[in-house]
Design a protein that fits this description.
Layout: H1 2-18, E1 20-24, E2 27-33, E3 53-60, E4 63-69, H2 77-88, E5 94-95, E6 99-104, H3 108-112
Parallel strand pairs: 2-3
Antiparallel strand pairs: 1-2, 3-4, 4-6, 5-6
Organism: viral metagenome
InterPro entries: DHH_sf, DHHA1_dom
GO molecular function, one term: nucleic acid binding
Length: about 120
């Protein structure tokens, strides 16, 4: 449909213009600063051979909201969201294996790359 074509084109333009790469616990991630979206945003830039996760983030209600997505079988987004929420937020976090989220106080670890636990979870 025309609406779906528009959404796909808009997602492609946004993703290809605004993504950046980071590493979390040795996992390569592709990141976009956008809220109220889903993994379809990454369709034009997602490569599961290159990246472990897709991540979106945005600031709302004095906290950063982060969403994690993956199509890979070796990544459990719910575990990662819980661990990141525990280290950088007030706990909580979680969701589904392939799509999860959490809220944190700072995203420095996301921008600069970082660790959320001492050992790699993969």
């Amino acid at each position: 449909s025309i609406i779906m074509e528009y959404i796909e084109q808009s997602n492609r333009e946004y993703a290809e213009t605004c993504f950046f790469e980071t590493t979390l616990n040795g996992m390569n991630c592709i990141v976009i600063n956008k809220m109220i979206t889903n993994s379809k945003l990454f369709d034009s830039v997602w490569n599961p051979d290159k990246y472990h996760m897709m991540i979106t983030f945005g600031f709302r209600n004095d906290q950063w909201t982060i969403s994690f997505y993956s199509t890979r079988d070796d990544v459990d987004c719910s575990v990662i969201a819980k661990k990141i929420a525990k280290k950088y937020g007030n706990g909580g976090g979680g969701g589904h294996v392939k799509a999860s989220g959490c809220q944190v106080d700072s995203i420095d670890f996301l921008i600069k790359g970082g660790e959320y636990e001492n050992k790699n979870i993969m």
